[in-house]
Amino acid sequence: MQLIDGKQLSSQIKEEIAEEVQRIKAAGGKTPHLAAVLVGENPASQSYVRSKVRSCEQVGFESTLIERPDTVTEAELLQIVADLNADPSIDGFIVQLPLPDHIDADKVTLAIDPRKDV
């Protein structure tokens, strides 16, 4: 069995992605833009999403964090998903789970355009 150094591998992958982003930008291409939707104040979810936002920024991606209170309605969250699906500046996004009990997580995740599902 071979042991893998996860930190080293992660660092190497981030470097490769950053180099590719630089090539895209140097060739006049669009900077990749990812968004994350965070509902509520679950500390583990907040930490995870903020880590992903930092990782995006480290490799040269644009990132957007959309935060809503756990009182957001399902309809409001579905509208956010629809807006992100339709936004040509957003290349991909995640709706962080878990969601509050009053929101059907399956309905929300199924509303994400598969081309933008991260």
Indicate the low-confidence ranges by residue numbers. Answer: none
Give the fraction of residues assigned to helices: 40-55%
CATH homologous superfamily grouping: Leucine Dehydrogenase, chain A, domain 1
Rg calculated over all Cα atoms: 16 Å
CATH topology, anyone?
Answer: Rossmann fold
Helix/strand/pairing category: alpha/beta
Number of helices: 4
Mean pLDDT: 96
Our measurement of the CA-to-CA distance between the termini, rounded to an integer number of angstroms, reads 31 Å
Order of helices and strands: HEHEHEH
Please, how many domains? 1
* Largest β-sheet summary: 3 strands, parallel
CATH architecture classification: 3-Layer(aba) Sandwich
Strand segment tally: 3
Q: What is the percentage of strand-forming residues? A: 15-25%
Assign the CATH class. Answer: Alpha Beta
General form: globular
Strand order of the largest sheet: 2-1-3
